[in-house]
Amino acid sequence: MFVTPAFAQAATGAAPAGVGGADLLIQFAPILLLVVIFWLLIFRPQQKRMKAHQAMLSAITRGDTVVTSGGLVGKVTKAVDGEDLEVEIAQGTRVKITRGGITDVRSKSAPVNDNKA
Fold it and tell me: Closest Cα to residue 97, out of 55, 60, 47, 56?
């Protein structure tokens, strides 16, 4: 009753070509922006921490003081290139743990010379 024929025709007609693509881009822009923000603030720093932790684990040598994931502090008595480490947690008490069980290296030892007579 109050609708003019011009408005009625525009409401039933299709949108012009090319306008739908711009609307779609505008709708997805905030989602893409959130993905970029999450990547920069969460995923990249986590990857850097993981790389640093892996480098720390691979650099463990005999004589280092380490902290295990269980909270035990001990001195590495045997370090092989593989996964296992032998850690002395008390006088005469040695345990075998994996490198993945180490959370921190407290102090690096001086290089050990096994060739002393």
Answer: 60
Is 90 exceeded by the pLDDT of residue 110?
A: no
Cα(65)–Cα(103) distance, integer angstroms: 11
Does the domain formed by 61-107 have CATH 2.30.30?
yes
**Within 10 A of 5 (CB to CB), how many other CB atoms are there?**
7
> Sheet containing 65-68: which strands, arranged edge to edge?
93-98, 84-90, 73-79, 65-68, 102-107
pTM > 0.70: yes or no: no
Burial of 88 (0-12, 13-18, 19+ CB in 10 A): middle
- State the amino acid at position 22 in one-letter form: A
